[in-house]
Amino acid sequence: MKKVFWFLWVLFFIADIVHYVYTALKYNDLYVADVEHIFYTAVLGLAAISMSEIKKGKIILYFLCFLLLGTIDFLPEFEQITALDSCAEGKCEVARNMGIIKTQNNVTECVPQSINKGKKL
Q1: Is 101 helix (H, G, I), strand (E, B) or coil?
Q2: Element (H, E) at 104
Q3: Of 120, 103, 116, the residue nearest 31 (C-alpha)
Q4: Where are the alpha helices (DSSP H) in 1-116?
Q5: Which residues on neighbouring strands pair with residue 108, listed in sequence order?
Q6: What is the rounded distance in angstroms from the CA atom of residue 9 to the CA atom of residue 26?
Q7: Comparing C-alpha atoms, which of 119, 118, 81, 116 is closest to residue 100?
Q8: Longest dimension (CA), the chain
Q9: Residue 110 in contact with residue 100, Cβ under 8 Å?
């Protein structure tokens, strides 16, 4: 059990570091890299906690790492989705401030934009 634990820990840790460097170089912005790094570190923590032989406090540690998985919601793509969802409910102020939509003469239009057109986040 301990060999499998350390093998998975080292393998996932190396993958986490490689992903962090790749994301930092790809986006030229550490915000996206930091958010994804925290998410993957939380996944690594969940794996470590579930495989460890902690007797007391295991549920609390597992719950704290589970809460860290919510940081994936801070990615720019998810922020845009959340803004558009709130706009569908009639609260378009956030989407207007983000530049996703524009309103003229009580007509709401979506501003065409694509993340994949080489635009940096």
Answers
A1: strand
A2: strand 101-104
A3: 120
A4: 2-27, 30-51, 58-68, 76-88, 93-98
A5: 103
A6: 25
A7: 81
A8: 66
A9: yes
Residues in CB range of 1: below 8 A, 6 or more apart:
51
User: Per-residue confidence of the chain (121 residues) as pLDDT tens digits?
Assistant: 678 777 877 887 888 788 888 877 887 778 877 888 888 888 888 887 887 777 888 888 888 888 888 888 888 777 777 777 777 766 777 777 777 777 777 666 666 664 444 444 3
Written as six digits, the tokens of 90 are 């009639």
Pairwise CA distance, residues 16 & 97, whole Å: 34
Give bridge partners of residue 110 from the DSSP assignment.
101
pTM of the model: 0.59
Task: Map tokens 């495989």 to a residue.
Answer: 51
Distance (Å, whole) CA 92 – CA 54: 47
Neighbours of 91 (CB within 10 A): 11
Q: How many CA atoms lie within 13 A of 33 on its CB side?
A: 16
CA 102/CA 95 separation, integer angstroms: 8
92 neighbors 80 (Cβ within 8 angstroms): no
